[in-house]
Amino acid sequence: MPGRRPPTARRYAQAIFQLALEKDQFDQWILDIDSMLSATRNQEALLLLELPGLKPEQRLSTIKKALPDLSEFGANFMAILAGNQGLKMLTTVQESLQGMIDEYRGVIRGTVTTAIDLDAAGLSRVQADLKGKWGKEVVLETRKEPAIIGGMILRVGDHVIDGSTRGRLDALRKELSERSIR
């Protein structure tokens, strides 16, 4: 139809969210989309599934054979997405869906960067402190960056807390240079 825009990744994610909410299948959908992403990293598989001449039933059959652990809804979604040449949207669909699920569950995500590997006990303490601050469950990805020298840098949503030695040294350097200019 003229003037009709194809669905966006966010609209697909909203539809999946509603379906997953009704069926209590958030975790299944996350697994399904992870499987879809793994499969579509192979460029040949991606091109085959999005082949314009492929009949919908052939597309669905191919998906079910290639990804037997995919749920029925997941296989159908992937077939629809492939039929609309939309498999490249999967990463954005996944990010949008994860954001909706996190908001529904009261979870926030972030990263903690340290100069040395953060052990499980240290990570738990940081998560507990952040949960106390924000009143939500906090899921943190850990990163190691020796250049920060010590301490940590927390990024949660729009918030950045730089408690790194490198950050403190940079702040001190800036303060000293401003004072010497006056």
Task: Using the alpha-carbon principal axes, give the shape.
Answer: elongated
Overall number of domains: 2
The neighbouring-strand order within the major sheet is 2-1-3-4
- Average pLDDT: 92
The CATH architecture of the largest domain can be named as Orthogonal Bundle
Total count of helical runs of at least 4 residues? 8
Q: Remind me, CATH topology of the largest domain?
A: Peroxidase, domain 1
Characterise the protein shown here.
With 182 residues, this protein is α+β, with helices and mostly antiparallel strands. It folds into 2 domains: 9-101, Peroxidase, domain 1; 106-181, no CATH class. The protein has 8 helices and 4 strands; from the N terminus they run H-H-H-H-H-H-E-H-E-E-E-H. The longest helix is centred in the last third of the chain and has 17 residues, at 165-181.
List the helices and strands and how they pair.
Blueprint: H1 9-23, H2 26-40, H3 43-49, H4 56-66, H5 72-83, H6 90-105, E1 107-114, H7 120-134, E2 137-144, E3 152-156, E4 159-162, H8 165-181
Parallel strand pairs: 1-2
Antiparallel strand pairs: 1-3, 3-4
Helix pairs in contact: 1-6, 2-6, 4-5
Give a quick set of tags describing it.
182 residues, Peroxidase, domain 1, 59% helix, 8 helices, 2 domains, alpha+beta
Short précis:
The chain is α+β, with helices and mostly antiparallel strands. It is built from eight helices and four strands; from the N terminus they run H-H-H-H-H-H-E-H-E-E-E-H.
